[in-house]
Every structure is written in structure tokens, then in C-alpha cells.
Specification:
The protein has 250 residues and is of the alpha+beta class. The chain is built from nine helices and six strands. The chain starts with a helix and ends in a 16-residue tail after the last strand.
Length: 250
């Protein structure tokens, strides 16, 4: 407790705040500090915008709601009103931090460990007041219209080091059971594996068909590996982008 006795300003003490306490000192709103703050904001904003942007940061976690415009147009229109987040029935739409860069702060992204994109839901596309998310019908979203492919917001991938049938030789078919597409994007191959004690076991190990997967995220959300799911969705393959593809056609 020597600091209390040695403090020349007597600003350190036990009990209620006194007039000389730091908490009671007035906020410095002098003209000099105000000008410094304005200049700092004017200088730092374009620097942060040019270095931390949707074009320079990895986009794998930027999974936008179905019907979203291409990223540049989306960010121009999105006013971060949060209406799509409020109406989402599974709460999967959450505000972004810096996943989409500085200009994407508080814009809507899907976080599948919280929820998932309900297969037959298009509510967010009809509540958006600016058209950043274009209005969809259920038929257009799931691809029931003639010659229409389903809206794709990403693609799921397996982390075989965490998947129970792949890494632990443990039976699990949860992801395939919840997959909503028809035919299912998740399918199995049967393997005969030798266990540590020398016995043999038949396992169903899952695979994903990227041509069918829409990136809805229900497999990631329901995966029983509860911390970091063994199957995870990234934005690659999304319908709204012509460049965010696994294999670019020439």
C-alpha cells in the first residue's frame, strides 16, 4: 500500500471518489484536442479503408444472406440497419466486425455456429429496405423454377482431422441426416477400418458434392463436435460472385 502514502496528488485512496480523483476530472474538450481528433479521423479513415477492405482481406468468412448483391454493390447499398438480423428465424445473420474489412463493419454475415440459413426461408430478402439483398421467392432460392439453379451462398468442407468417422473411427451421420437438399449434398462411402486392438469395423465416412451444396450451414450448426465443427462452410462458390470460385472457367 505504499502507493497510497507516496502519491503526491493524493489521488489514490480507498472509499468513495473525492474531488481530486481521476474519475472526477473534467473531460478535455479544448479546441486543440478537438482539432487533433478531427485531423486524426480525416487521416486515419482513408488509410484504414485502403488497407483493411473487402478487397484485401480473406473473404472465406464473409457469407452473405441469400440474394445479396455482389460485394462492392452490396456494401454501397447496405446501411447496416439490422432488419435482416431481426427477422432471421434461426439468428444466423449477425453483424460483422472486420471480416469484411473496415467498410463492412456491422454489415450482415452468416455465422453458422449460431444458426443456419433455413432452406425454404426468404424473409431477409423481403425486409431489406435498400435492395442490398434482392427479393427472392422460395422457388428461385431452392432452384425449383425450370432451368434455375439454387442460390448458393457458399460451400461446405470437411476437416477430416476433426470428423468423428474420419479421425476417431466413431459412427456419426448427423450432417447427412440434416442436409436439406434433394438429392442430399452429403453422401457416404463405406470403409472397412482396422482398430487399435486389431478388430475390423465398418464405417460410413461422409463426402460433400459441391455441385449440390448450397452453403446453408445446417451441417456445420448441427455437427456434434461442439467447439470448431468438423464440417464448415466458406463463401467460395457463392452465386453472387464470378471470381470467388474453386475453379475458374477459362
Amino acid at each position: 500500500m505504499n502507493c497510497i502514502e507516496d502519491c503526491p496528488e493524493k489521488a489514490i485512496h480507498f472509499g468513495l471518489a473525492k474531488a481530486e480523483s481521476a474519475a472526477h476530472r473534467p473531460l478535455d474538450v479544448s479546441r486543440r484536442r478537438l482539432i487533433e481528433s478531427i485531423v486524426a479521423g480525416v487521416v486515419l479513415y482513408p488509410i484504414m479503408k485502403s488497407t483493411i477492405s473487402s478487397g484485401t482481406t480473406p473473404q472465406y468468412r464473409v457469407i452473405r444472406p441469400p440474394g445479396s448483391l455482389p460485394e462492392t454493390d452490396f456494401l454501397r447499398r447496405c446501411i447496416k440497419c439490422g432488419e435482416c438480423m431481426k427477422i432471421c428465424p434461426t439468428n444466423v445473420i449477425q453483424p460483422a466486425l472486420f471480416e469484411a474489412g473496415f467498410e463492412g463493419l456491422w454489415s450482415p454475415i452468416l455465422i453458422n455456429r449460431i444458426g443456419y440459413c433455413e432452406f425454404n426461408c426468404v424473409l431477409c430478402s423481403h425486409i431489406c429496405p435498400t435492395g442490398a439483398i434482392a427479393p427472392l421467392t422460395v422457388e428461385k432460392k431452392v432452384g425449383n423454377e425450370k432451368g434455375q439453379k439454387p442460390i448458393k451462398i457458399g460451400t461446405a468442407f470437411y476437416d477430416r482431422g476433426r470428423c468423428l468417422p474420419w479421425a476417431m473411427n466413431t459412427d456419426c451421420i448427423v450432417c447427412e441426416e440434416v442436409c436439406p437438399t434433394s438429392p442430399k449434398a452429403i453422401w457416404f462411402q463405406t470403409f472397412e477400418v482396422q482398430l487399435r486392438d486389431g478388430s475390423m469395423k465398418t464405417l460410413k465416412r461422409p463426402f460433400i458434392d459441391p455441385n449440390i451444396c448450397t452453403g446453408c450451414g445446417i451441417c456445420e450448426n448441427k455437427c456434434p463436435v461442439s467447439d470448431q465443427a468438423a464440417v464448415r462452410v466458406t463463401s467460395i462458390g457463392e452465386s453472387r460472385s464470378s471470381t470467388n470460385k474453386m475453379i475458374l472457367k477459362t
